[in-house]
Task: inverse folding
């Protein structure tokens, strides 16, 4: 095995440097906990970064083209309002924002507890249950979208 100037070994052309191979894979639970931390941090930081985010991202493409909000329009603002204790405003932005925020908070905390105590707390559902959860979530999003259009109108 040869080494380059940095001391990272390599096997030859077309192979990954051996110094970068750890052989360890991050568990799915750790990935989900990290995603939860990022979502929660984003919810808390969004009001301070809203101007920057607005200048970088184009916003909702469906809303720009059709004038109608998509199923997730307002979710980020709703979660940010929930994170800062403005539940009325959060529900006006997206009906599922506060429940989703508290679900992410609870699951992230339980996964952190699992990591700290090295024992499972949350059940691990099978693929059929995940499929049911996905369809149920889609149904809730559609119902919240219709309720938002009926009760609050297009521009929220």
Result:
């Amino acid at each position: 095995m040869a080494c380059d100037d940095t001391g990272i070994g390599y096997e030859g052309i077309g192979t990954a440097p051996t110094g970068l191979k750890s052989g360890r894979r991050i568990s799915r639970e750790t990935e989900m906990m990290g995603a939860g931390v990022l979502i929660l941090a984003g919810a808390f930081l969004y009001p301070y970064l809203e101007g920057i985010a607005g200048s970088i991202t184009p916003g909702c493409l469906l809303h720009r083209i059709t004038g109608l909000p998509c199923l997730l329009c307002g979710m980020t603002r709703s979660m940010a309002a929930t994170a800062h204790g403005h539940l009325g405003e959060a529900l006006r932005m997206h009906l599922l924002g506060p429940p989703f925020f508290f679900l992410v908070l609870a699951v992230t905390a339980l996964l952190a507890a699992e990591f700290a105590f090295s024992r499972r707390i949350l059940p691990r559902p099978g693929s059929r249950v995940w499929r049911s959860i996905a369809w149920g979530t889609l149904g809730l999003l559609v119902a919240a979208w219709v309720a938002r259009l009926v009760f609050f109108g297009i521009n929220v």
Q: What stands out?
A: DSSP finds six helices and two strands in the chain.
